[in-house]
Structure formats: C-alpha cells, structure tokens
Amino acid sequence: MVNLIKNEWIKIFKRPGTYVMITILVIGVTVLGIFTKYQTSGTITVEKNWTETLKEENDALNRQLQQSHSKVEKQFFKKEMAINNYRIQHNLPPKETKYHVWSFVKDASELIILTGLFTIIIAAGIVASEFNWGTVKLLLIRPISRTKILTSKYLTVLLCAFFMLAVLFVCSTVLGMILFGPPERTVPYLDYYNGKVTEQNIVVHLLIYYGLNSIKMIMLVTMAFMISTVFRNSSLAIGLSLFLLFTGDQFTALLALKYSWAKYSLFANTDLKQYIEGTPLVDGMTLPFSIAMLVIYFVTFQTLSYIVFKKRDVAA
After folding, report:
1. DSSP string, 177-204
2. Which of 66, 108, 174, 270 places its Cα 20 to 30 Å from the Cα of 29?
3. Is the pLDDT of residue 151 over 70?
4. Assign residue 183 a region: left if phi > 0, alpha if psi is -120 to 50, beta otherwise?
5. How far apart are CA 89 and CA 214, in angstroms?
6. Burial of 22 from C-beta contacts in 10 A (0-12 / 13-18 / 19+)
C-alpha cells in the first residue's frame, strides 16, 4: 500500500499543474498579507470605554433574547452575552491593540476554499485520467487488488489536501510573523460551549479551526473522487463539486428557513463549529446527529466508488 501511495504521489508531483496550484496558494497568502498590512497599518483601535459598550450591548441582547421565539437566536444571544460578561470580569478587550501573526493566520483561513478547489481538481482526475489515458490497464494487470489500488488513490488525495492545508498554515504563519510580529501578550481565545466560557490557547484554537473548516472540503473531495470513479469524467466531477463548494451553504441556509428536512442535507452538517459556538442551523440538530450524517454521506460516496470500480470492465 505504501508503495502504491508513493507512486500516486510521484505522478501528481510530476505534473506542472501541481506546482502552479501551490504557487497560486502562496501568492494568494502573500497578496492577502500585503493588503491586510496596508489596511490595518499593524494596529486596531480599541475603545477606551469598551466595558461600558459591552454592558450596553448586553442590555440590548437581553431585550432581544426576551422577545425572540427562535431557539437558534436565543442560543446566539446567550453566547454573546456570556462572552461579553467574561471579557468584563477578566479585563479582556474585544480587540487586541495590535494586529498580530495569529490574527492574520485566522484571517488567512478564508483561503481554505482555495485549497479545496485545488484538491477537488486532483481528486477529480486521479481516477478518470487513468481511463482517459488508458493507463488503468497497466494498473490492473499487477497482482494487486482493485480495492488496494483505489484506496491508495483516495489516501493520496487526502495527503494532498493535508499538504495544501499545511502550506497555507505555515506560509500564513511565517508571513504574519514577518509583517505583523507576535502579539504583545498571551492572546487567549474565548471558547463557548454548553453555556460556559473558557480560555483556549490561540494556536490550539487555530489548528482546531482549520480542521473544522476543512470538513466541507474533505466531503466534497470525496464526492469528486466518487464521481470521477463512477462516471470516469473529470470535467463532471470538477464542475459539480466546485458548484456545490461555492453555493451549497447558501442553498442549504435558504432551505433551512422553511423546511426542517434541510438538516439532512450534506451542507447543513459540514460546519461543526455551529455546535461549538452554540448556534446550529436548524432546531433539533446536535453534534452526534451531524457526525452521523457525515458518516452516512462518506460511506455512501465510498461504497459507490468501490462497487463500480471493482465491477467495471476495462478490457475494451
């Protein structure tokens, strides 16, 4: 299996397009860093009377809480009030006086969508291209099961996804340190879960944040891999996956406004941050429910891929 993965990895990095994608990602981070540096000039203004502002905000949130009939809205108001109270009690301003490296790393996480785009392109072509070029016959004549061949290709795609994420995280950290420098003091992240506010190490939070933001990418990459395997068409896999990557969340949010069954859709469950922050998309959704739905979609995509690939006749 290891040799198969190495072989797939070498094939991916023999393509000039792979290096073009990595270069675009690095350039994207660089442009974002320069633009942010120009916009912020390294500082963020903090109100002198920020405690009074937060108290007034809490009064307004409390009034909205009393008037709201939505469970989702009530959870959001409670979260904001709890965090504001924690800031007041522990003298933590809502904004740091200095824009620093970790601020930039978190802002750069918006480019995860770019890593998703590139990984989808790789996933869409890793199987379909073998059929288009006729090289699939050379793979299948080896004394290796089709299951191992397909598994090695999928694991290689996942490794590419993690590699792209690592490039994004490391590049944004290095550039952020150069342009903005470290924070003036230890910067905790205020985590709200089950009605309690706790301080979390900012680096740990960013790693978790990147991981949770990558779930949608992994699911769409798995879907693109399935389409590539079932239909042997990389264009269809890329087109459909990218369309859902950019529009899936919006369509799901619109459906959730009127229909409770929207919670069964893939994109209603890819954002697990909604449970950490206490604001699920649809009433009744829970973390175990979303994990179960993701597992069902994942198993469905993989089952279709393996069944079709194992039964497909490639003699012609």
Report:
1. HHHT-S-SS---EEEEETTEEEEE-HHH
2. 270
3. yes
4. beta
5. 34
6. middle
